[in-house]
Amino acid sequence: MPESSLTSTALRSLGAGLALGTVAMLSIARTDAQAIAGHNSNAPVSYAADRIELQDRQNRVVLSGNVAINQAGLNLRAARTTVAYTDAGSLKIQRIDATGGVQVTRGDESARGDVAIYDFNRRIITMAGNVALRRGSDTLNGGRLTIDLASGVSSVDGRAGGGSSAVGAPVGSSTGGGRVTGTFSVPKKSN
């Protein structure tokens, strides 16, 4: 086979591999958001922690030590959380801020990061700092993840500060050096 033919075949294979990779990476982010998009943010919230402190005048509850929060199958684990609420006749959660090895799971999908903010009013979950999404053997890593529960759209930025202005999150480092990275499984070609 001539060298130019080998080169063009290699380039076509590389192009096809990159196209498949891009589609697979986008599908991880889209599927994760779609799975969570149907989440009922009005469902009751249950919680457990080693210590709970009610700060009634500030309308917040601080949970610390092995914090576990669950809402309709969406599970959050962290070292510490602050739950802000309103008390206009009945308690209504406004926002949950979580820090310290934050892990969010739903079904077989998981996301982790240094910090997370769940804004109940805007229906937006933001994770920042060393963010990693996992679904089976597929991974997506970055500095900041934003999931809009209302629209089902999610985005991953390379840096924790991100390019999105959804919810202000502290700037942290990312494992990808300011870039979004990941791995994906390539379907085996059947003969």
TrEMBL record:
Q: Which residues are in the Organic solvent tolerance-like N-terminal domain?
A: 49-152
Which stretches does UniProt call biased (Low complexity)?
A: 181-191
Renumbered residue ranges of the record's region Disordered? 160-191
Q: Which residues does UniProt assign to the signal peptide?
A: none
Q: Which domain of life is it from?
A: Bacteria
The answer to whether the entry has keyword Signal is yes
Entry keywords, A to Z: Signal
**Pfam families the record matches:** LptD_N (PF03968)
This chain's protein is named LptA/OstA family protein
Q: Which organism is it from?
A: Novosphingobium aquiterrae
Its ancestry begins with: Bacteria, Pseudomonadati, Pseudomonadota, Alphaproteobacteria, Sphingomonadales
